Amino acid sequence: MLHLKLPTDPRWVGIAEMQIEDILVDHAYCEQKAASSCISLIVRYSDLDYLVDTLTPIVAEEWGHFERVMDQLRKRGMKFGKQRKDEYVAKLNDFVKKGGSRMEQLTEYLLMNALIEARSCERFKLLSKNIQDEELQKFYYELMISEAGHYVTFIDMARKYHDPEKVNKRWQEWLEYEAEVLKNMELRGDRMH
Ligand SMILES: [Fe+2]
Ligand SMILES: [Fe+2]
């Protein structure tokens, strides 16, 4: 359903579980970035009513996720701390087409967001199915459902605001690029992506 071209290396979940504090910190920042990215779109495309009205509740939802990740950290006596370098998102940013019309730019942002949601969803599923901590299993299961919904929302929105055929073609390019990025990234247990 997520159409990702490369499944996560099955070793990832095992090493992530051993570094769950790092994973939770990185995850908190993922939620912060998801909320921030929606806010940026709302400000940039304030004339698009459907976009504004659809993304506004998603900001609240992502911020709710941030709060829930923070609760998980606090109840385990873990430290939050500074944001780490996000190589995955930086690489995806490199693929955003510069120039083009305002709506073509929007397509790029929406597809990049969709992709991050899809990959997060896949990783949350792996965590929910494989880690020992029962509370975190349930936690990641619930978040997986929510991010899957966001993934669909972003893709559908891209098809609403731009020629769906062009969007589908570009989506395939994004999927292939993302698979290449992951293939070339070091496997590490302290990052969600
Ligand atoms: Fe989220
Ligand atoms: Fe999300």
From TrEMBL:
Pfam families membership: MiaE (PF06175)
Molecular-function annotations in GO: tRNA 2-(methylsulfanyl)-N(6)-isopentenyladenosine(37) hydroxylase activity
GO biological process, one term: tRNA modification
Domain of life: Bacteria
Designated name of the protein: tRNA-(Ms[2]io[6]A)-hydroxylase
